[in-house]
Specification:
The radius of gyration is 25 Å and the shape is flat. It has one domain: MetI-like fold, CATH 1.10.3720.10. Helices cover 67% and strands 0% of the residues. The protein starts with a helix and ends in a 5-residue tail after the last helix. The chain has 311 residues and is an all-alpha fold. Helix 4 crosses helix 15 and helix 5 packs antiparallel against helix 12.
């Protein structure tokens, strides 16, 4: 038995090193190195001091003469000009909160449009899908005015005046949750493929609507829910527009917005930019998203496959 296994393994190795496969492997290796190069550059740049980075002619791989851990310590411990741990905490809380609401709204809305019958259902669903065609930048000013004129908040009366919920956590708590339209579409497509007899059998056993959703249908939607969670978490973690435009207090900043503010301040006249620190913070923002995508990318494929959507 062991000899057979060794023989099969040797044949597979020999098959992979045939010229037609070897060329493909070399091409993939070259493409992989090109894609990884920016990440390697960021890691090495993090070991520079500000002075050495500004006075050194950088090569293909920047190697500092006097490496320092200060930038990486700042990434985890904060610094005099940026409370990095606070930014990480804000980013994490906002990502978890937005992901939870995306999953909840996608599941409930998907069930409503897949199982319930009411007048205007198809029209309403098409209207919701149509909102996905509106560029997000168009909504910036209307959203800003909506937050600024929020009734009875920030000194506002019911009409004008005050600052509303701008520069408060309500920007994240109220502005974050919404119906995840694309998630609802995927859940709807998946539930419609399930036999309605599942619901009827559960009702005969005395199950109510919520029990059917969370005990019967939800377990069958786990690949879809994982896909929604991953994509929502990545989008929220990397989002800098919301905190950058709707908040100004340092205590409310997330990591992407904080990096943008540091970069903008560094570009002011007479300022000496601390690019090693900015690059290191950018690396800290990128790595969690890369790891999340790397370990859970299979759920993206499974989630789309379960809806019948093919790319």
């Amino acid at each position: 038995m062991s000899q057979t296994i060794k023989s099969d393994f040797s044949k597979r190795i020999a098959e992979q090193f045939k010229p037609k496969y070897l060329l493909a492997h070399l091409v993939l290796l070259g493409v992989g190195l090109v894609l990884l190069y920016p990440l390697v550059f960021m890691v090495l740049a993090g070991f520079f001091t500000k002075t050495e980075f500004m006075t050194t002619v950088l090569g293909l791989l920047p190697i500092p003469k006097a490496p320092t851990w200060d930038n990486y310590l700042t990434l985890f411990n904060g610094s005099a000009d940026a409370a990095i741990r606070k930014y990480f905490l804000n980013s994490t809380l906002r990502t978890v909160y937005a992901t939870f609401w995306a999953l909840l709204t996608a599941l409930l809305a998907g069930y409503v449009f897949a199982r319930l019958q009411f007048r205007g259902k198809n029209t309403l669903f098409l209207a919701l899908l149509g909102t996905q065609m509106i560029p997000a930048t168009i909504a910036l000013i209307p959203t800003y005015l909506q937050f600024a004129r929020w009734p009875f908040a920030g000194g506002n009366d019911i009409f004008t005046g005050g600052t509303g919920i701008l520069d408060t956590w309500w920007v994240y708590l109220i502005g974050g949750p919404s119906i995840n339209i694309m998630g609802a579409f995927l859940v709807k497509q998946s539930i419609e493929k399930l036999p309605y007899e599942l619901d009827e059998a559960a009702k005969m056993d005395g199950a109510g609507t919520l029990r059917i959703i969370f005990r019967i249908l939800l377990p069958l939607q786990m690949p879809i829910m994982a896909f929604i969670a991953i994509t929502t978490a990545l989008a929220t973690w990397n989002d800098f527009i919301t905190p950058f435009f709707y908040t100004s207090s340092d205590s409310l900043q997330t990591l992407p917005a904080a990096i943008t503010r540091l970069s903008s301040a560094a570009a002011s006249p007479g300022a000496v930019p601390n690019w090693p620190l900015i690059i290191t913070l950018s690396l800290g923002t990128t790595l969690p998203a890369l790891l999340l995508f790397f370990f859970f990318q299979k759920y993206i494929v499974q989630g789309l496959a379960n809806t019948g959507i093919k790319g």
